[in-house]
Amino acid sequence: MFISTLMHHSANYSVNSSYRQCVPRVPLRNQPVHTPHCSTSEPSPSKNDTESLSNEFISRLSGKHEGGPGKLIPSLLPSRRDFISISAMSCLAASCSMIAVAAAPTSVLASTLEEVTPSVAMATLTPSEENVISIFERSTFGVVNIFDITIQGRASNPEAEVPEGNGTGFVLDDQGNVVTNYHVLQSVLKGLGSTNPNGRRVARVSLLRPDGVQQTFDGILVGADRARDLAVLRIRAPPDLLKPLPIATSSSPVSLRVGQQVFALGNPYGFDRTLTTGVISGLNREIRSQLGTIIPGGIQTDAAINPGNSGGPLLDSSGRVIGINTAIFTNTGTSVGIGFAIPMDVINRVVPQLIQNGRVSRASLNAQVTNEEVVKRLQVPPGACLQSLEPGGAAAMAGLMPTRRDLSGIVPGDVISAVNGKIVQSGSDLANILDQYQVGDEVLLRVVRSGEAGGPKELEVRLKLGEEK
């Protein structure tokens, strides 16, 4: 079954505590101090004695002594004191050598180093790496960290702000509009209940300044669309801090290709402005919103998306936003290489309405569509299979049938195969087509109905579109 995990990260997670868990502080142990053993009971040899002894000893070892090699005279074997003396002389000689090198002219050092050390070319970046770095450096100032807040009344402070969680967003324009996911703000929006939250302060938004310091601003809600998991905030930041990201005009399968490189920018687990890379793994995937409605045209990617990445941009190799990272398929709660982004086609339809009206008026059948996995099990023909109907909604009033159970088992709901002659192959197709109409528009549906005597039948149903709730 398709699992979509929404990427909202709790603020209770501490970055510092994670380091403490991963890299526990280990106290340094007291290291024993080792000092060389030196005898002070024997008198130090004179310079002449040392030179005489050393020369004679070396002469004996080299075979030039009259005793010949292999006939060491016991009296010429170095004593413990002699070893100390020889060691001292060696250290003195080494010290003198180091001093001499340090004091040597630069030209001598250079020529010596050239002879001894082979030249090593500095590592250079590939054109691909240069492009990735360029994308990050151009985009990072347009990506923001979002902390939604909840107002909790207390005796000492009746409007105390409590941070709930963090997500990501990006600067859309020079007016300070910031786009993110609805679910990044869901805690505070749910807390406001039926109150219209537009114009309310619902988050803290952090921007990166050119000097590398983050500056935080109040995030004022402009509008939110739960059905498409999108929201717009506005911040009152100086114009020089607003760095809008370039937006792709479309992210349809015509303009995108499976296999092309993409980049996800976000704040996973609070690690701000993290870049991950991957490719487009699939196109036209169905993403389910919290309302159960289908977000059509989803982009599947293997770029790592984790809690905190929600609302962040998915970029193409030109640095343009082609989607908003919103969900992952996982059994562990972390990235397994299957992430999903809302495509720009949806964003370009929804966000302008949110900015202009604070809400989205969307035409709808007022019905839930069965997901792809269930459709495969029911073995219904291609199209959008109706799972349930809203009482009094457009589909119910037109007499369409939902999925149901009778004595023979599960009976699939009506399958919509076309809208005004436009072919419907899936729930995503239906959602895309309905987005082109207005509330109250009349459409003609081609429907395949199961559970009738004599097998499935094709019907034509005319209805007026309702408003999506």
Automatic annotation (TrEMBL):
Keywords: Hydrolase, Protease, Serine protease. Gene3D superfamilies: 2.30.42.10, Trypsin-like serine proteases. Residues 37-54 have a biased composition (Polar residues). SUPFAM superfamilies: PDZ domain-like (SSF50156), Trypsin-like serine proteases (SSF50494). Residues 354-451 form the PDZ domain. Residues 30-54 are annotated as: Disordered. InterPro entries: Chloro_Bact_Ser_Proteases, PDZ, PDZ_sf, Peptidase_S1_PA, Peptidase_S1_PA_chymotrypsin, Peptidase_S1C. The keyword Nuclease does not apply. GO terms for biological process: proteolysis. One of its GO terms (molecular function) is serine-type endopeptidase activity. Belongs to the peptidase S1C family. PANTHER family: PEPTIDASE S12, PROTEASE DO-LIKE 8, CHLOROPLASTIC. This is PDZ domain-containing protein. It comes from Chlamydomonas eustigma.
